[in-house]
Amino acid sequence: MTKLVRFSVSMEEKLVAAFDRRTRKRGYATRSEAIRDALRAQLVRQEWEEGEEVAGVITLLYKHSHPGLSECLTEIQHHALLQVISTTHIHLDRENCLEFVAVRGKAERVRKLADGLISLKGVKHGELAATSVGKRLL
Amino acid sequence: MTKLVRFSVSMEEKLVAAFDRRTRKRGYATRSEAIRDALRAQLVRQEWEEGEEVAGVITLLYKHSHPGLSECLTEIQHHALLQVISTTHIHLDRENCLEFVAVRGKAERVRKLADGLISLKGVKHGELAATSVGKRLL
Amino acid sequence: MTKLVRFSVSMEEKLVAAFDRRTRKRGYATRSEAIRDALRAQLVRQEWEEGEEVAGVITLLYKHSHPGLSECLTEIQHHALLQVISTTHIHLDRENCLEFVAVRGKAERVRKLADGLISLKGVKHGELAATSVGKRLL
Amino acid sequence: MTKLVRFSVSMEEKLVAAFDRRTRKRGYATRSEAIRDALRAQLVRQEWEEGEEVAGVITLLYKHSHPGLSECLTEIQHHALLQVISTTHIHLDRENCLEFVAVRGKAERVRKLADGLISLKGVKHGELAATSVGKRLL
Which of B2, B47, B72, D112 has fewest C-beta within 10 Å? Predict the structure, then answer.
């Protein structure tokens, strides 16, 4: 069981108002929950900056008809067995593929793997959605 | 077959140098491919801003022991059948779960679904990785 | 709310004993639950035989280095957009791939798709795990 | 590179004819490929019988509204971290869920995990699609 503390924060009125608008728009039940999320987002960023064990998903948009591309994507992933958990392939239409590579590992290795995949010729759009393995996030 | 054009761009030397360092670091084979990726990233952003049909993945980090949370996540997703394609669940450890919800649909609906899931109490970290269905991206 | 009925069944003693051993071994809480599962399994089979809308997963084991195979698998799946929901790729080792193709549709189309994928040269093992979309199963 | 051998088999004419009909119906290019598949299917079965390291997918059909069920499914999977790779959840309709649990490990542990999940009250249909990790299958 985690002990809860309560403390006050001073802030410009306008900043609070802007944040409250966002909080409501995003559907948060309370301002506190929205603030906790903002703090945790910073902690996740820190885990990546400090090279901790992290998790994430690499999104890849490409045409499967691009010569040699899908084989190359598979090849790279099979050489990163320690980082790749599983890959989900969505068949958008006859041509376009969307792949989600679930990854976990040291931040630097994961980022390098993402760069290697996204920079391939034929990958139209790619991104690394960075998150945490959750151990240090309450 | 897509016709290729070749044209020149004028730019500050320092900007080119900085971009070239990034290009090499990310593993791109050529500067042109890195520039194409930068342009396509802007087009993806535009699809989201203009409310087009888009695709993406919602990442959710949470503890499955949080009372009622996993049922609530499932419930919301089952009420968004048109947007949700499939969900991948990674069991990080005894407590922590990482879920990747593959989504597709009108930008506004997808973003609202993401907000609704991420803002739930008990979701420690969440993000919407925004990409495209690829139809208008070469 | 579904109304429950209670009725009796006559059966050879030995058959009951054998089924009870299986029930315990499989971890069922009660004999009734194990019997309900046996009946539902028959109903799922019937949905497939009668050509209903069904669901399932096609498992495919192959080496990604087999020339042209992964492209061919992708190509076939992209021509069956109505049946294929999403595909999960597990990287077993440097060479071996395990793919799970989640499918849904008319039984005959799904089976034909499964046959087409499994019979490809280079697919070492494949199977269609047949289940139901659940509408008619209580 | 694997050396190929060629040898002859004697068989009842009718058995060959029946197998050839199946071979054509399933879309195999040659009788040899269909026979290789039949042999590999036996070897996969043997890996499971002899308790080798195997792989597979557990399919689970259930209603997410069944009280406590989805939490129980998640709980069991999080206690089998060594066997569970990832889980894909398909939202069939407002009520019905289809889950594919990708598994890998000693045959006995995997089978026990499958039994534990499938026998839960509320799981309408479940199956273990058994395959191999591919190391010993050519």
Answer: B2
Rounded distance, CA B121 to CA B73, Å? 11
Tell me the per-residue pLDDT of B59-113, one tens digit each, with 9 for 90 and over.
999 999 999 999 999 999 999 999 999 999 999 999 999 999 999 999 999 999 9
pLDDT value at C131 more than 90: yes
Kindly report, residue by residue over C75-101, the tens digit of the pLDDT: 999 999 999 999 999 999 999 999 999
If residue B64 lies in a helix (H) or strand (E), which one and from where to where? none
Q: Which two tokens stand for residue C2?
A: 């579904």
Q: Which residues of D touch B89 (CB under 8 A)?
A: 74, 77, 86-89
Residue C87 to residues A81, C73, D88: CA-CA distances in angstroms?
Answer: 18, 11, 9
Q: What is the dihedral of CA C73, A95, B5, B26, to 10 degrees?
A: -60
Give the Å distances, CA to CA, from B67 to B73, B99, B120, D23: 12, 17, 12, 53
pTM over 0.90, yes/no: no
CA D130/CA D102 separation, integer angstroms: 11
pLDDT tens digits for range D53-107: 999 999 999 999 999 999 999 999 999 999 999 999 999 999 999 999 999 999 9
Predicted pLDDT of residue D2: 66
Mutation pick from D86, D90, D101, D133 vs chain A, by most beta carbons of A within 10 Å, is: D86
Cβ neighbours of C84 in A, within 8 Å = 91
State the complex-level ipTM: 0.87
**Chain D residues lying within 8 Å of B77, measured CB to CB:** 89, 91
Q: Quick one: pLDDT at residue B77?
A: 95
The predicted structure's pLDDT at residue A1: 53
Residue from A58, A62, A78 whose CB has the most chain C CBs within 10 Å, to mutate: A78
For residue C48, the SS3 value is helix
b/e burial code for range B31-68 (CB count within 10 A of at least 16 → b): eebbeebeebbeebeebbeeeeebbbbbbbbbbbbbee
Q: Which two tokens stand for residue D49?
A: 């019988």
Q: How far is C85 from chain B (nearest CA, A)?
A: 7
Yes or no, beta carbons of C71 and A74 under 8 Å apart:
no
Q: Among residues A18, A45, A23, which one has the least CA distance to residue A34?
A: A23
CA distance B60 to B114: 9
